[in-house]
Amino acid sequence: MATxxxxxPEVRAEVKQVREVVSNLxxxxxxxxxxxxxxxxxxxxxxxxxxxxxxxxxxxxxxxTPNSMVVCDLEGNVVxxxxxxxxxxxxxxYIYRNMPDVYGxxxxxxxxxxxxxxxxQNIPCGLTMMGDEFGGPVPVGPFRLIGSEAIGKGVVETxxxxxxxxxxxxxxxxxxxxxxxxxxxxxxxxxxxEVAHTMWAARQLGxxxxxxxxxxxxxxxxxxxxxxxx
Length: 230
Description:
By secondary structure, the chain is α+β, with helices and mostly antiparallel strands. The protein contains seven helices and eight strands. It has one domain: Class II aldolase/adducin N-terminal domain (L-fuculose-1-phosphate Aldolase, 3-Layer(aba) Sandwich), CATH 3.40.225. An eight-stranded mixed β-sheet has the order 4-3-2-1-5-8-7-6. The longest helix has 24 residues. Its EC number is 5.1.3.4.
């Protein structure tokens, strides 16, 4: 089995940098109330090698450091780290192997998004910000058991049907989000919880008015290609 020492200095330098990024981003999950206790995880794939950095399993957020992050290959095998990796490692690895443009994956059990997952419902696209961010509803994926790559397969299968969405709600489990890096996936996780909460509140007031797909496409195109700094 390969170890980090088998890789060159460029890879080891990127591992050090990504460990810091991934460690710090776990604190953003706490900041945005997306996790409790030890639930949830962030990973980021390297550009210099087929490796990823992921949270260790069952370690409290206040105890996470860059050095406690675990380096794995894209089959989920540990390459460097003193802790066991997240129980979702095989699913993160499957996503990276099958979605080559994805370099960040996040899983949370955030309250409102997970409530939609528990009822097996898509979050309907009733907000312009959802058109912007998700290009439609936030989809629900199939029920899968934890501990293998089965959840990752469900994520990939679902997102292939909803290619503009960076999020999927795995039924009876919770949201998984993707991004061009781990920060992008964390942003998607925060946005998923925000729209899940707002759409739940809207349901208490009455029926949600869903936006036409043609208008959603215009919103998404503007947001992805015009909005912000370029």
